[in-house]
What does this fold into?
Amino acid sequence: MSQLSPDLGLHDVNAGGHDTVYTQSMLPSPGMYKLDILLKRGHNLAIRDRGGTSDPYVKFKLGKKEVFRSKVIYKNLNPVWDERFCLPIDNLHEPLYIKVMQLREQIIQQFKNNVSQRAIARNLQSIISSKDSENLEKSLQVSSKQSQRLSEVHKKSQLWRSMVSISLIEGRDLIPMDQNGLSDPYVKFKLGNEKYKSKTMSKTLNPQWREHFDLHVFDEDGGVLEISVWDKDTGRRDDFMGRCALDLSALSREQTHKLELDLEDGQGQLMLLVTLTASAAVSISDLSIHLLDDPHECQQILNKYSLLRSFCNLSDIGIVQVKILRAEGLMAADVTGKSDPFCVIELCNDRLQTHTVYKNLNPEWNKVFTLNVKDIHSVLEVSVYDEDRDKNADFLGKVAIPLLNIHNGEQKAYILKNKEMTGPTKGVIFLEADVIYNSVKASLRTFETPEQKYIGEESKVSKQLLLQNFNRVKRCIMFLINMGSYINSCFEWESPRRSICAFLAFVLVVWNLELYMVPLSLLLFLGWNYFLLASGKETREGSVSEDEECEKDEKDSDKKGFMDKLYAIQDVCISVQTALDEVASYGERIKNIFNWTVPFLSWLAIAALCVASLLVYLIPLRYIVLVWGINKFTKKLRNPYLIDNNELLDFLSRVPSDVQVVGDCLLSFIELKLRFSTA
It folds into this structure.
């Protein structure tokens, strides 16, 4: 292979898997090299399984970074891989580590060589060469063509060929791992780089998971789905319970297969439903050539998702096409005052990314991504990262756009926000998106379980998030309290005109109420609010102003001292503590009525329930509600000085909660002990 010239910008693929744009200032001195590696086969590998075989694969690390991992060859001591890959290098003396691994991360064999050596091992071919200056121009032309091919390989490595839908139903007769003769099993799935972990079922050998998820298939032949079962242990390493493998190439497409897989290195079975779907409409292209710009292709897509085809392939709802144009004013993540930004676009569990633009705070990507829409209520997330060669990428900013909020063909500048999406960070990104979907399919999908993200951020304790959630709950409760106060003001005749109107409306509604009027009233309420929004008489600024007020409160809290913040947290904790005590107390009091904690109150409840049952049996419910309402409205007129009360809450207040019961028992025990001691 050839050395890259320092005076020519080339488009290549770096070791991290991103497209790389090399410019004159970026290329190292003396040059950049491309390493071609062909992994052929292994011979007489070590035995690592009980059956006298191994499940080997090979990991390649350049320095401290893993650059390639081969596929797994099952139950074979003489595996044949025949896999080729390429990576650019800038240091011929950097060591290349080669590890032959067992499927469960046991090292079978390990090599270490400098990249500058001609041959790394007998079954590994690596060639590196540098052309003379007089042949430099020819070598650059060859390298440029190879770089374009590498870019295509990188692009294809992101695009999945098809999807496999998996329903994990149950496990049968699993091996007991705990001292009580039971287990806490969960299942791990791995298909290439795609992973999924099921929920843990406690204390059972026949777990019922009933989980559904999708994985992307990148191999044309389908690949091998690796399945392992584990026992969850708190405070120590989880125990291995068994494994199995499923060759997807043996399954027919567009057909649901009911599979009962026996576990190896353990006992029991797993029951799965597996469906291998056809290739998804996923693509990455340049700005000059993309799907919806072609009138013929665009018309075909519109016909595919037209209302006439509403009941064909209900899972294929539509497509979204996103143009990632450029960003401006990004955060400087490197010590040089620059960044190496690239974009990651995510739609639920679908994830694609752009190439990296090096040493630039105003990058231009000009890439077009096309993704399938499986749920019209999904949120399109576009994140910007700074590439670091020796460690994880640095986060620069993120935007989240609900698909229903996208206006087709509209180019917009979005302010980048932090990871929690609670505040802005530095920079803006320019995007243009188009969504084409079938409204009938999208409506039917709305009533199904939404797809969950397999990889999400772990929850962390946050003072601001605690205050924000507390204020949200407080607003909801205050809304209910204000509504109750408004209704009570009608009973109290604070405004005679309003009370008369409310009384007449109550009598009219109760006297003529039919069951169909309940959804009809909700329909009228929705229609009225839509009319107000459409006419401009009412806007959604209320929620926006509340969010702005929350952000203002957060900024003000940052300016406060430590004691002020401590008092604010203390007030929130006291309010939450009081609210939880009230809710728990009323729940315990209702329970204690039926537990005969206070027999007098339980007998009284029996008498009241008997009277209520008799009244409802003899008198229609409409008349009972009408009498109750008339009594409520006229109570203040009959006795202006009457103090209003709620009979049910007054009754519950006489029933002791569990805390009060325990306290009374403790006092009785102390009194009894004192009596015995004095006697």
About this structure: Residues 1-31, 112-151, 541-546 have pLDDT under 50 and may be disordered. The first strand starts at residue 10 and ends at 13. The radius of gyration is 34 Å.
